[in-house]
Amino acid sequence: MSVSALGGIGTDDDPRAPSTAMTTPLPQPTSEDLAPGHAFLGMWSGVGLVIANMVGVGVLLSAGFMAQELGPGGILLSWIVGATIALSGALAYGQLAILSGRSGGEYRYLHDYMHPYLGYLAGWASLLIGFSAPIAIAAFAAGAFLNKLGWPLTPQATGTLVIAAMTLAHGIHLSWSRSLQNVLVAVKFTFVLSFIAVGLLLGSKVWPAWTAPLAGPGPPVRAFLENQYWVAFAFSGWNAAVYAAGEFRRPRRDVARALTLGCLIVGCAYLLINWVFVANLTPDQAIAVADHEATQITLAHLVMTNIAGESGAAIVSSVIVVVLLSAISAMTLVGPRVYASMADDGLLPALLRHRGGKPPSGALLVQGGVALFLLHTQTVLDVVMSASAVLMVFSMLTVLTLFNLGRRGRPVRAQSIFAAVIYVLAVIAILSAGITSTKAIVLVLAAIVTAGTVGYAMALRAGDVRAQDRR
Known about the structure:
Layout: H1 43-54, H2 57-66, H3 72-100, H4 106-113, H5 116-130, H6 132-148, H7 155-170, H8 174-202, H9 221-235, H10 240-243, H11 251-279, H12 283-291, H13 293-297, H14 299-344, H15 361-377, H16 380-407, H17 414-437, H18 440-462
Helix pairs in contact: 1-8, 1-11, 1-14, 2-9, 2-14, 3-9, 3-11, 3-16, 3-17, 4-5, 4-16, 5-14, 5-16, 5-18, 6-7, 6-14, 6-15, 7-14, 7-15, 8-11, 8-14, 9-16, 9-17, 14-15, 16-17, 16-18
């Protein structure tokens, strides 16, 4: 696939070179970004990073919760809409990656192209919610599936061991991180294809007869929008490559490609996975799913029991644990790069900074600690709603930077602006529905903004922020 089809403008000879059409210089990659020890990712590694971050606990538990209010058609339509939203965001982020080529994700783009304060809030949200929360949920789900297989420890105990082990593994050496991640992605991709193949070949091929047990009268518009939080949570990770953009060998070319290809692959896979779920769920099981949270989380085990019996379900649950480990591994790898970038700019303590060609061990430990706190203090429902809302807010703000760049005369492609408009409108609609149904989202956002504002003020007062950040 050509670079132009994916929004790239870098050349093979000089992929990091900025466009000559820019009227004023954009922030350039630092020596830290360009260090040989950091440039270890290629395009397909980036695609794998996106897939690994996206395919995890979200798609495996979302259908069980969504089936309470939405029927088969509503669930499948939700995933089509969710894929469209995620792809729109990926196209917009791809344009930002072309302009920047630096690590840090939302923090980096908001910091450089809007205001350092907004970048700080985004990085703060990534620390508290963006990565730590999904890690905690995936670790809990891994424990729940292991319980189905007779594992004696509780989900919380198992999750604690998993988070600690992944933090240690990714803190040893960058080459270990890459090797571990590539192996787990290969296992995950094999499982996804196998699950889809078994479901399509051996499962039901007729339109399902069950109905949502908690569905209300009339078109489920509000239920559809509210359940997009589950879909958004499952699709979170579509932007994974931008967090480590500075560690790509050709970031201006390959990051945009990785985002788009990863989104397309996962979107198709999600639709097929959810067809297997809804097509093989019986009416009685749909009611059981609504009554028991444990069944909602392990819906894949229940559905595969219908298709391939208990032995087949046991195999599926075993591989799902590996899939969840892959997601945890990917987020453990990517997340600390955000906090390290903030520390490099003086917005977080120096112990979190990059360390040349070594992993940012201080940032890894902080993220692991926050994930463990959430694992032992929050429920799955609370974390999903809060995490989805926070991620959508800051990704929307990041996409809006394209309009700011266009207003300042920077070359922003028309298709990127169109994708940004779709993404912003969709996020506003979803957030509006969620806020009217629960005030917890507002409280979480307010807490993050308040804590982030205090932290930013303290960083400025301490005098550690670079001079260009004081604006």
